[in-house]
Specification:
Bound molecules: pyridoxal-5'-phosphate
Helix content: 40-55%
CATH class of one domain: Alpha Beta
Shape: globular
Largest sheet: 6 strands, mixed
CATH architecture of one domain: 3-Layer(aba) Sandwich
CATH topology of one domain: Rossmann fold
Structural class: alpha/beta
Number of helices: 20
Length: 439
């Protein structure tokens, strides 16, 4: 599989280069040039295969040429955890994606990316430094995924005092090759510092910087795997007509599902559920894309006013609004609707769901009510464990979700962070001092 920049089709790269550089040199996103036809591979999947076996089969077809004999290793190392499909009611199923080390779906992309980079760097003397800014969730998935990978150092910037205690513990207690820089500033400051570092040529020639943000194609593509796995499980239940509903913010998750569709997955359509940050549902309705500053909501991992993967979504459809909007329906969900859905699901089913998943469930219900999807099944992606958003869950449902072991352990450990000013010079100095080459 080869990749090209979304801004210039002649700027091309193989998977290794796309993964190790993150962003194309012109600032565009790497995107597959051709979509392979995997339809018959999908239909031939063994209904009893565990997730990791299905993942090996698909990755072999997609990137076997990049990994060679290491393909099996890359995939098995990446996925010691698996998605689970659980029915919510007659028509809605929940695809639980929170059984990984940080208890959110971002574990799938981060873990595969880490495993791929480990293999790509195995025979080189290069030491890559992953530099990433986080508002909470991405950083914890990245910290867990890259912990103790040889030849890789991780530097995470997070805004001091502006992430939840649980998120901070997840970021700052991993240790070893994972350093948390506690920035005296906002998340925007953190992002600005990272961007500045990436365009600083002196810094880049001394330190091998790379990115683990969701713009990295190596984080996005593996997310297609759980859509394929869900199809395998539905097929075993004789379900032939189905949709996916995806709680969306930066739209990486939805883009991965649509890639699976473009490779021949026989899904009838997608529902993109957003909170009140509704630029994409707006675009789907009107054909006009107007990014705006984000608004804070109870589903804060989806508070995005200018989703970075929108460029990729358009690339899949050659910017054809009609084609995109006939496959994807948007549903906008308010905080009140999120809370009500959490309470109802708990009262009716005894099930606790996190606010992002609740946006998805509301989206699925709305789609069923308004679009007349017949007796099709809607698979809603559960993007985080409810214990990650304990305050919102307690408020809406009046109960405290039990803490999974991974989160309980993080809470008990000692925090280690390096305080740093929200200033490019301070970050540059830190990176040169700790990771600069000495030749
Ligand atoms: C990141 C995140 C989302 C949004 O996913 P995108 O790929 O950015 O659309 C939804 N829910 C949770 C819990 C997240 O962490």
């Amino acid at each position: 599989m080869r990749f090209a920049s979304t801004r210039n089709p002649s700027l091309q790269a193989d998977f290794r280069e796309a993964v190790l550089t993150g962003l194309a040199p012109d600032g565009g996103l790497y995107h597959p040039i051709e979509q392979p036809d995997l339809h018959s591979l999908f239909l031939g999947l063994n209904p009893d295969s565990p997730f990791v076996e299905t993942a090996v089969t698909v990755v072999e077809r997609l990137f076997g040429d990049s990994f060679g004999a290491d393909t099996d290793d890359v995939v098995r190392r990446a996925f010691p955890f698996s998605p689970k499909l659980a029915p919510l009611n007659d028509q809605i199923d929940i695809l639980e994606l929170f059984h990984g080390p940080s208890c959110a779906f971002k574990d799938f992309g981060a873990s595969f990316l880490a495993s791929a980079m480990e293999t790509f760097l195995a025979d080189s003397d290069d030491r890559a430094v992953i530099l990433t800014a986080t508002s909470g969730d991405t950083g914890s998935a990245v910290a867990q995924a890259f912990h103790n990978r040889p030849n890789i150092e991780v530097v995470i910037l997070y805004p001091s005092g502006r992430v939840s205690r649980l998120q901070e513990q997840q970021l700052t207690t991993v240790g070893d090759n994972v350093i948390a820089l506690e920035v005296a500033g906002s998340f925007d400051d953190c992002q600005r510092l990272v961007k500045e570092a990436f365009v600083d040529s002196e810094l880049r020639s001394a330190v091998c910087l790379t990115s683990a943000n969701s713009i990295n194609i190596g984080r996005l593509l593996p997310q297609a795997l759980y859509y394929i796995y869900a199809f395998q499980l539905l097929r075993a239940r004789m379900i032939s007509e189905f949709y996916f509903c995806v709680p969306s913010g930066n739209f990486g998750n939805l883009t991965a599902g649509i890639l699976a569709w473009s490779w021949g997955l026989p899904v009838s359509g997608f529902v993109a559920a957003t909170n009140v940050n509704d630029v994409v549902p707006d675009y789907l309705r009107t054909g006009i894309y107007s990014p705006r500053p984000s608004i804070q909501t109870v589903a804060n991992a989806m508070d995005v006013g200018d989703p970075s993967n929108f460029e990729r979504l358009l690339a899949i459809f050659d910017a054809d609004h009609d084609a995109l909007s006939s496959l994807v329906s948007g549903v906008v969900v308010t905080d009140e609707q999120i809370r009500t859905t959490m309470r109802e699901v708990h009262e009716d089913r005894g099930l606790l769901i996190d606010p992002h998943t609740a946006a998805g469930v509301f989206g699925a219900q709305t789609f069923l009510a308004e679009e007349g999807a017949g007796d099709a099944t809607i698979v809603t992606l559960a993007t985080a464990h409810p214990a990650k958003f304990v305050e919102v869950v307690e408020q809406a449902c009046g109960v405290t979700p039990p803490l999974p072991q991974a989160l309980a352990t993080a809470l008990e450990r000692q925090k280690h962070s390096v305080p740093i000013a929200a200033d490019g010079t301070a970050l540059k100095q830190y990176l040169l001092e700790h990771y600069g080459s000495h030749d």
